[in-house]
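Q: Structure tokens for this one, please.
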Amino acid sequence: MKACRYNDGVDFALRDFQRDDFDSLWRIDQECFAPGIAYSRMELAAYIRLRGAFTVVAEPPPGRQERPANNGGPDTESRRKVLGFIVAQANQRGVGHILTIDVPPASRRLGVGSKLLAEAEDRLRAAASRSVVLETAVDNSGALAFYKRHDYSVRKTMPRYYSNGVDAFVLEKELLRTPATSKLFR
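A: Here is the predicted structure, written as tokens:
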């Protein structure tokens, strides 16, 4: 687990996905994206299990877990508060793919998305990815501004990419080697 501090002392930790996170992640995906863009349960589960894929979860640091209000469900006490997550995949061709990055509105503007994206990029570099691509809806101005701040560029438009008929931009970023990762490539 990697502890992170960002924006005025907001604390959160990053960790790998655990099977009991799935329902929370799926609910967050439904909250973050419109019907036709949000993944079905089956789609999200399939992406998490893809060969070369990894999922990173952001949560309050240990000892500061916030439990959701008891809604009578049997697993309420065991669930942790999830602040956001990212699913990414490294492939054999040296191109990483961000499949989804989801941060619910209550966790936005705290640095959660930036830290998740940086962690995914670091892992992709370590897996010998030279670049990373992702898709986002052409009308998602918040996501486009976020990716522009992180040096992603629009490479092309994919007409009617989403099942609701919305076009997508394909964005790409070159992953430069850092001193820590350059040793991996010798």
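A few notes: The first strand starts at residue 2 and ends at 6. The first helix runs from residue 22 to 32.
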